[in-house]
Amino acid sequence: MAFASFDSQRAAAPMGEINMVPLIDVMLVLLVIFIVTAPLLTHAVKLDLPQVSSQVNEVKPQKIEFAIDASGQRFWNGEPVTRTDAAQRFAAAGRLQPVPEVHLRADQAVAYRAVAETLADASKAGLHKIGFVSQPEAP
């Protein structure tokens, strides 16, 4: 390959050859990198792991059926309780793991105050999964 020429007619013509030396240098460097790193990526310890089949052990949370009738009387799973007894039971239930769900059934004629007090007592005890149970409308 000639870098300088004494021929004045061809001196102004652009060089039509590609310089392959830098490309070969880069390819050789990449080849060396892959040769060095490939064994490191495939190195593994062979183990005979035990074969077992397992099922997820899901602990279903308890549910508390809490009802308030039209007169404001509270029922814990069908048993009549006072507001203070219900608050104490909510506090005990809030310490359980997993935290139980509260299904609240309130008569439509009950004062909202009784429902709000019950919600506040349950929330203070750490019971946050509270569902309102209702009866679907007849068509």
Mean pLDDT: 86
Helix content: 25-40%
Low-confidence stretches: none
Extended strand count: 5
Overall spatial form = elongated
How many H/I helices? 3
Q: What's the arrangement of strands in the largest beta sheet?
A: 3-2-1-4-5
> Termini separation (Å)?
96 Å
Content-based structural category: alpha/beta
The value of Rg in angstroms is 40 Å
Structure characterization notes:
Strand 1 and strand 2 (74-76) form a beta hairpin. It contains three helices and five strands. A five-stranded mixed sheet has the order 3-2-1-4-5. The protein is 34% helix and 15% strand. It has 139 residues and is of the alpha/beta class. The protein starts with 20 loop residues before the first helix and ends in a 7-residue tail after the last strand. The radius of gyration is 40 Å and the shape is elongated. Helix 2 runs parallel beside helix 3.
